Each structure stands twice: as C-alpha cells, then as structure tokens.
Amino acid sequence: MTNILRGKLIFQSIRKQNFKFKILLFQFIIVFISLNFCFSLLIKAECSKNNLKKLIGIENNVMVSINKNYDDNVDINKILNEKLDRIKKTNGIKAVSRYYKDKVLINDENIGGIFLDKEAMNIYNFNIDGSKNIFKKSKYIPIIISEDLKKQYKINDTVEIDYNNDKFKGKIIGYLNKNDNFWSDRIGNDKSLEKIENSIIIPFDKNCYYNKNLEYRMFNRIIVQIDKQSDINALEKIKNEGIINAYISMYDFVKQIKNQNSQTVFLMEIFAIVISILSLIGFIGVVISYISFRNKEYAIRLTMGSTLKELSILICGEIGISIVISFLISAIISISINIILSVKPFYISLVALIPSLLVSIFIFIIFLTTYILFIKRKTINSLMRGN
C-alpha cells in the first residue's frame, strides 16, 4: 500500500511540473540518441573485425590484385592462369584462392551465387551442416545453400540452375550456418562482410562447373595464404615483376577498416560530447530552476513530517521515470532509423542502447547524490526562503 501511495505522489508531482518535465525528457532523448550512434559505430567496427576473423585467418592471408594488362588477340585466361601459377610457385605461398559473386536463377528464382574454387573452400571457415565435398565429380553439381533456404530445399534435392543462360543441374549436399558471413560488394570498409542469405555456393572447377567468362571475373577476387607473416615480402618481388598490382594482408585490412571507423567514431564522439555538454548545461539549468522553484515545496513536505529518505524517493522516482521514458523513445527512434536505412546487423543498435543507458544512469546517480547533499546542508527556513 505504501508503494502505491508513493507511486501516486510521484505521478502527481510529475503532473505539477508539466513543462519542466517535458524539457527534461527532450534533453535526455537527445543525449540517448547521440550516445547510441557513437556506441553503434564502435560496436560495428569490432563486429567487422570478429566476423573477418571467423571467415578467414587475418594473420596469414593476403588480398591480391592481379595485373590484367595484356595484348589483343591473346587468350587472356591462359595468360592470367600462368600468372596465377607463378604466384603459387613462390616460396612461402601455401594456397591461392579465387571467388566470384553474381546472381543466378534456381528453379526460376533469382538468388545470390557464390562461386568458389577448391582452395577457397579450404581457406574460408564455413560452418556447414552436411557434406563439405562440393568438388566431388557426380551427375549433378554439388551445391551448398544458405540457412534461410532450408524451408524451401532439402538435402539431396536437385535443382535447375541458370547462370547467364548457362543452364545446369545442382544437388544440395549441405546448409550453411545462419551466422556465416562472406565478402560483400563493398570491400574496403566496415561493410566488407555481410551475412550469407538467399544464396548458394557453387564449385568452380573444370570437373564440376566451368564457365570461361566467369573464370576471367574470378581473377578479380584473389586471396593468397602464406606460411607466416614475414612471407608477405615474397609478394613484393612478384609485384615488381608485374604479376600483381597490389596486395594487402588481412591484418592490415582490419587496421584499415578500424582507422576509417576511428575517424568517423571520433567525429561522432565529438558530436556526442558537444550535444551531451549542451544537454547537460540545459539539464543543469532545468535542475537549478527545479530546485529553486520547489525548495519551498520540499520544506513544506519536511515540515509536514516527510523524511529525507521519502524526499529522495520522490526525486529518484521523478528523474527515474524521465530516464525510462526518454530511453524508450530514443530506442524507438534509433530502431526506426535502422529499419528505414536497412542498417545491418540490426542487433547493433539494440546493443548500443545499453552503454547509453548506463552512462545516463551514472549521470543521474551523480545528480541525485549532489542534490541530497544540497538538501542536507539546508535548514527548513532557508528552503522556505528559496535559498
């Protein structure tokens, strides 16, 4: 019963404040949203690093750009394969893998196709439920489908596949895990990886599926596996020979993403700090007026028999409710923005709300402690006079 009465007193007090309470809410909402964006960027940068580590080892893999300069009237694929063989024969190089992503039709449905050669299937860390041997020669081309297609297709189902009017039959031998990621079409930033959804993995090999035009495209996506980090120097020699144009280790690639994000995060942190300071200044202004105009009310409450503990509960309840309401409103706004902008992964915006809430609660605890100390130092007469 006592808790119900306290609750009623808190809500009655909030109704009396009206405009001041709305200002308080507005300032908290701004702080929550600015902090949420800042924490979202920090979390996203860390997620990109972790996802890349899961997909491919960052210590001993290098992304390579092969030199495609050639004369007319030559078999370009033959020339590029010779360059690829030159890379493979270099000391310290363990494996050279290629991949390519494109749209394919499966039973007349448009989905994503991930073409991998044998080395790529060994280098990338996919969690596959079923057989992993997609390079086994058989009547139908073995394929692996993403987890979200399990409802439509079962293992051992055969499907009609059409890639740029090149039609063939595939047999499903396994499913990817729902948490598996792969390269996106925007390599170079924190969007370099994306979840594998509505996609199939197709083996690229002359004994499985081969397409001359596709082979040329696959030379754009090369990952080289080295024995140890120092072996990356061997690629510099190949570069000087004109075999490759450029290369970057996965370790440096992660650093590049983090540095790019650091600049954005730094700007967002500055923005968040400025907004937070402005909001805090406004908040302090509201608190000062809140204290000045309500000192007499608190003095009357103390005169009527209210204890300092009850007064603390009242203040705590009012500010606590404002934090909860503003947190929920800012959460709805942040989630809505992520839905509208199709930001992925979606859970980042939700996780970022937690540190934002903790920061605000910390500010609230400091404020409450300071205010209680202020009340303790005052006499009822000084409070009645508004001092």
Automatic annotation (TrEMBL):
Domain of life: Bacteria
Entry's transmembrane regions: 21-43, 265-291, 311-340, 346-375
Keyword Transmembrane helix listed: yes
An example molecular function term from Gene Ontology annotations: transmembrane transporter activity
Name of protein: ABC transporter permease
Coiled-coil segments on the chain, per record: none
Gene Ontology CC: one annotated term: plasma membrane
UniProt key word rRNA-binding: no
Alphabetic keyword roster: Membrane, Transmembrane, Transmembrane helix
